[in-house]
Specification:
There is one protein chain. The chain is mainly β. Helix content is about 5%, strand content about 55%. It contains one helix and six strands, in the order αββββββ. The radius of gyration is 14 Å and the shape is globular.
Length: about 90
């Protein structure tokens, strides 16, 4: 059985994804997460945004992302195994 879904099926804002504004003007759908982390007794959040690789520049580091009216700078990115998605590491501004 072949896998026939497209990445847009998983990044649909009617399900788990939300719309964000990338680099001031482009709407990008993705899955936002701001999970709590505790590393060696120091706690904080690690905001990330999973989106389609084609939605952002090849190296989006330093560009902005506005999620639910909160401004973030992209501090890093991690292409995911399938190459269709990228996990953006965010820093709240």
């Amino acid at each position: 059985m072949a896998f026939t879904e497209t990445i847009s099926d998983f990044l649909d804002t009617n399900d788990f994804a939300i719309a964000a504004t990338y680099n001031g003007s482009t709407t990008v759908n993705g899955i936002f997460d701001a999970a709590y982390l505790d590393v060696n007794g120091i706690g904080g959040t690690n905001p990330t945004f999973l989106c389609a690789t084609a939605s952002v520049a090849a190296d989006p580091t330093g560009k902005t992302l506005v999620v639910s009216s909160v401004n973030y700078v992209i501090r890093g990115f991690e292409p995911q195994d399938n190459g269709a998605t990228v996990l953006l590491q965010l820093e709240k501004q």
